[in-house]
Amino acid sequence: MAVMPPNRALLSLILIASLIGVMLLSEKTMLKITEFLVYPLVFILFALSIYLIPKWNIAMITELPTLNQCLSTLWITLPVLVFSFNHSPAISSFTQSQQRQYNHPDTTEKHASHTLKLASTLLLIFVMFFVFSCVLSLTPTELSQAKNQNISILSFLANKFHNPYISYLGPLVAFLAITSSFFGHYLGAKEA
C-alpha cells in the first residue's frame, strides 16, 4: 500500500505559514509552544545517547588520527557545531524580557547572565553527549557510508541496529529542532 507523498511546495507553504502564524499570535504563545517542543527534544536526544552507550566502539578513542585527518574533520565539523549552539538571534528578545521582568539593570544583568550560562552549558553537554554517542557507536567506514548515502545519522543507526523506533524518531527530532530554531531566529530577525 503505497502512500503518495504530498506536494512539497504546498507542504512547505503550509508549514512556513503555520510557523509564522504562531509567531504572529503572541510572544507568550510562541514561548509556551517552544517550551513544549524543547523538553521532548532534549529527552529524545538524551535517551538515544544512553541507548547507544552499550554499542560504543571504545577503540575509536584509542586511535590517533593524522594531522590531515584531524584538520579535515575539524573543517567539516566546525560549522555544524557553531550552528548547533547558535542561539544568538534570541538573546536580544531574552534580554528585553528579562528587563521587563526585573526593572533594574543590575538585577537583570545578574539573572540574564546566570540563565545564559546555564542554558549554554546544558546545550553543550546534551549536544556533545549525543554527538559523541553517535560517533562512538559507528566506525569511520560507517560514518563515511552515511555521508555518501546522504542520510541522517539517526537513519543510519536505525538501519545498522535494525531498530525501527530510531527511524521514527529521526523525523521527529528534525521537526522539533527546526521548529524551535525557526522561532528563535524569527524572533531575533523581527527585532532587527
UniProtKB/TrEMBL annotation:
Keyword Cytoplasm: no
Pfam families linked: Trp_Tyr_perm (PF03222)
Keyword annotations from UniProtKB, A to Z: Cell inner membrane, Cell membrane, Membrane, Transmembrane, Transmembrane helix, Transport
Presence of keyword Transmembrane: yes
Residues annotated as transmembrane: 6-25, 37-54, 116-138, 165-187
Biological process, per Gene Ontology: amino acid transmembrane transport
GO cellular component, one term: plasma membrane
Compartments where found: Cell inner membrane
Topology relative to the membrane: Multi-pass membrane protein
InterPro entries for this protein: Amino_acid_transport_2
Protein name: Serine transporter
Organism encoding this protein: Pasteurella canis
